[in-house]
Amino acid sequence: MKVLGLVSYNILPAKIGGQKDIALFYKYFSRFVSLVCVTTRSNQPAAAEGYEVLNILSDSPARYANPAYFFTLKKLIKKRQITHLELEHPYYGWLAVMLKWFTGVKLIVHSHNIEGLRFKTLGKWWWKGLWWYEKWVHRQADYSFFKQDDDRTYAIRHFGLAGQKCITTTYGIEWDTPPPAAEKQAARNTLLQQHGIPAHHRLLLFNGAFNYLPNLNGLRHIINQINPALQTIAGFEYTILICGKDIPAELTSQQYPHIHFAGFVPDISLYFIGADVFLNPVVEGGGIKTKLVEALGHNMNAVSTYNGAIGVDPAICNGKLVITDDQLTGFAQAVVKAAQYEASIPDEYFRHFYWGHIAQKAALYIGMK
Fold first, then answer.
1. pLDDT at site 369
2. Alpha-carbon gap, residue 62 to 271, rounded angstroms
3. End-to-end alpha-carbon separation of the chain, Å?
4. Fewer C-beta neighbours within 10 Å, C or N terminus of the chain?
5. Rounded to whole angstroms, how far apart are CA atoms 1 and 82?
6. Three-class SS state of 293
C-alpha cells in the first residue's frame, strides 16, 4: 500500500495535541505502509519521522479554493503509484473526492472531530453548512477514521455511513508502560524545587493551548470555581500548575491563591510525570482531549468533565479517571479524592492507546478491505 496524506495546515514540528495527532500517527503508520505527506510550505520536513514531506500547498487561505492543486496531485499520484489518499479533516474534501474520481485511489477521510458539531458548540452560526459538507465528504470515502467511538456511531447514524467502512483510530501515546515510581518521585522533586512549592503540597496540573477558547474557558473555571471550592476543604494543601502558551496577560498579571502560571514549558512530560492529579474542566469543543490521554498514560490520576473525557473509557483506567458533570458539580471534592487514590494505570490502557497498536490496526483495516 502506498498512501498519500493530505494535510492542509501546519503540523511540523508538532507541538500541540492536534499536530501530534497527525505527525505521530504518520510516524507509526509509515512502519506498515509507504507514506508521503503533502502539506503547506510552513511545515518543516526535517521534523517528520519515517515519512516524506512535500511542501506543495500554499499557506494562504486561498489554498482551499485553488483548482491547480488537482492537476499537481493527480500527476504525483500517478508518478508515485499511490493506492490510498488520506485526507485530514474534511476541508479539502472537494479536492480529495475529485482525485478519487479521476485517479481511482481509495479515499480515507481521517476525522478528528465531527467538525460541524464542534463549531456548533463554539456558537458559530454557519455550523450547519459545514455539517452538510462534512457529511458529503464522508459519504464519498472508501474508509472513515474517527478519533473515538461516539463520533463513529454518530457518523454511521447521521451521515448514513456503512459501519464496515468506519473504524476508530484514537489519539495515542508513544510508550506502552507507565513511568517507574522512582522517575515520578524525581520529577516531583524537580517541580517542587523549580517552583518553590512546599513538599507536602499535592500538585494539580492543567495544560493546553490557551488561544483555543475551550481551554481558556477551562482555565477560567479553575480560577473562578474550582480553586475557590478547593480552598474551603479543610486540610487539603495543594498547588495548581498551569502550563501552556498564550495565557492572557489579564490572568497572569493577577495573584490567585494556590495557582502558579508556569506558561509554555520545554518539556511537558516532566509535569505529567511529577504532578499528582490532572484537571480537565473543559466543557466545550469536540473530540478526544489529547492531554487527558497523555496524563493518564503517565500514571496520573485525573478528574474531568463529561465533555472533557469523551473517547477515554474509565473502565480501562483502573479508577484513575473520575468524571463529573459539565456543570462542575462536585469537581473539587473529586480532586481531593483523586489526590489520595493509589493505583497504577493498567496494561489494557496501553493496548488501546499505544500508537504502534493504533497504526497497525489502521493498516490492517485498509489492507483487508
1. 58
2. 40
3. 12
4. C
5. 8
6. helix
91 with 81: CB under 8 angstroms?
no
All three cell numbers of 12 = 511540523
- What distance in Å separates the CA atoms of residue 290 and residue 179, rounded to the nearest whole number? 18
Fold of 181-350: Rossmann fold (3.40.50)
172 within 8 A of 24, measured Cβ to Cβ: yes
Domain boundaries, the chain: 2-172+354-368, 181-350
- The pLDDT tens digits for 54-102 are 999 999 999 999 999 999 999 999 999 999 999 999 999 999 999 999 9
Q: How big is the chain by its Cα radius of gyration, in Å?
A: 21
Determine the Cα–Cα distance for residues 69 and 258; give it in Å rounded to an integer.
Answer: 52
State the Cα–Cα distance between residues 5 and 40, nearest whole angstrom.
12
According to DSSP, the residues that pair with 240 across neighbouring strands are 204, 259
Buried b / exposed e over 199-211, threshold 16 CB at 10 Å, is: eebbbbbbbbbbe
Q: Which superfamily is assigned to 2-172+354-368 in CATH?
A: Glycogen Phosphorylase B; (3.40.50.2000)
Q: What are phi and psi of 39, to 5 degrees?
A: -150, -170
Q: Give yes or no for residue 287 having a pLDDT over 80.
A: no
Q: What is the mean pLDDT of residues 19-41?
A: 97
